[in-house]
């Protein structure tokens, strides 16, 4: 309604003239209501001039100057006392002095007294109206300010530059800057558009709206541009990402001979940051030093922003040391930038220096310091800051509360984080995201999804952080259906084009067995970063599609994006999964030679696995000996797995001893060592290993397979007969066995590492969990749909062969993800090409 009234008034009321309102409103003096103040300020009468009985001797301008002094020195008590004194003398202020008094009340936050004074003024002019409009604006009573502006227009008062700049600033504060068009039209009619004062206000309004071209036209129309006008236009360019134009205009300003001020420099430095032109920024810094603005807080913070975002942390620290530090702003800014740029130790050190300097932190300081604590895992410091926030009453501030949740969640104390979340009275989307991310990072994906449902019930808008975290949760569970639903939500909310969301989608589809969908997401990304390329390389590698993974890596080399350590982990893993020894050795060598990347433990693990699985066990051992640091447990596990594949019991025992030395309770190592002995028919050694497990209370993880169907997950163990569909499952298994044998399938009894009869081994093979899961899926999953099975252990060699036959018999794609990789079975073939 106010906007509509604004349009009507601006179209109809500008033409009102003073003769329509020729009768002033005279209000009786008895209505003033200020006499009661006189008794409160009797002790201060010595500050006032002596009373004179005659109003003719009253000098209104003397008292006005006194009021101006009280305004300047922020002395409201003396100003009120003076008003009481004047009231007793007969209230003989003229209009000029009354306006000064009105300004006194509005400037000191005494708006109600100012309104009473305004209403009781026997006459008013433009200054009276504008002064009260300023008061309403400062008190954020914007509706009343607009109404008063309409009243000013209707009463026919002068519309000059002072009025127009006031209303333009009011519209900007109200976020109604678009209404500036109407005000601009009136300004143009009255010929004020060439005034520098008015033009700068118009530039500011158009800048907020993003109308840079219109602002430029206004700037060009100003006849005598001053430094404020130039600064306003430079700021307009910088705020609207026209960084090059801002620098060009700054040069023109210098050519005109005008000296920049602190606001000019702040905008120019922002333009340098936007262009990533730190060199030009240094030149501007030199100009700052020459004009002695280096001690200004606005300029100092802008320079800090330039150097920290450009990675020049040392230069930023030098600027910080040179600027005044008696205010919390530069401390908070520097701590925040340290925390955001992985210099968390420096952030904590700076926070301690700040406390020693007796500067009180605000909510932003505490939030940034807590971010550093979360990154470093410094729960001890986080708890101390939590205690401090309780003492100063900032614990319920949303920024501090969110940062505290993050500290506790990343330190593994998710219960404390949840308690803070529940107690928070002003949660925002960051609060919800912090908890969702915390649960995802701790591996509790189900709690993360439950929180998301609660978030939707509370009608809190999800963000790219929400969606990317939930997609990671889906990937960790290999839960395709929730992942697809989240993908749908990202499309509806226009977040599917976000880089983080797209990267999470690639990861989710890759880990859920939908490699083609992962590639589609990758191909439609408009801007790929190193995470995008790494995700695609790793996805192809995980699916045993080594050539595709290496092709992606070669395509990456044609872009400006440089590979990092994770890129080569995916590349070497692809070589290992496909047995590409020459390529693997070539890439391993090129890491350091061509890219300057020192091999880390993950790279050595991939190379040991590559050499070992191809039977080069001695070369694998030699490579382990060349590792600069102590080999990790993953390196020895890779060697142990190779020994199992090649039945090398002695070397396998050697590798197992190293694994158990680092992780004595690792059940998989005992199982692999037992399997080596069983393959060698060394049953005494098998019995010894199992007794060792029993003595050390190490339990073997049971083999499980599960299938997701219609939103439900069905789990199956070895020989499982607890499922409601067990009769149908058994019938399907018998059909598998019969048809597979007719098709040429012959059971490999070596897959059963038990000392039992051959017939019993053949029966046990059909009780493996992946076969039971496959039988159930063929019964319940609609025809034509791919079958997806997840297994927590490595698929056995016989099940692998049997499922190849089944895929040909039923003519369906069967995707099995075991602990190492994916297997895509179709038409009697597997994507791994029998190398896994």
TrEMBL record:
Q: Which regions form coiled coils?
A: none
The chain positions of domain DYW read 744-836
PPR repeat coordinates: 94-128, 226-260, 296-330, 428-462, 498-528, 529-563
| InterPro entries referenced in this protein's UniProt entry, alphabetically | DYW_dom, E_motif, PPR_At4g14850-like_plant, PPR_rpt, TPR-like_helical_dom_sf
Q: Which domain of life is it from?
A: Eukaryota
Q: Does the keyword Repeat apply?
A: yes
Sorted alphabetically, which keywords does the UniProt record give?
Repeat
Q: Which family does it belong to?
A: Belongs to the PPR family. PCMP-H subfamily.
- Protein name as annotated: DYW domain-containing protein
Source organism per UniProt: Penstemon davidsonii
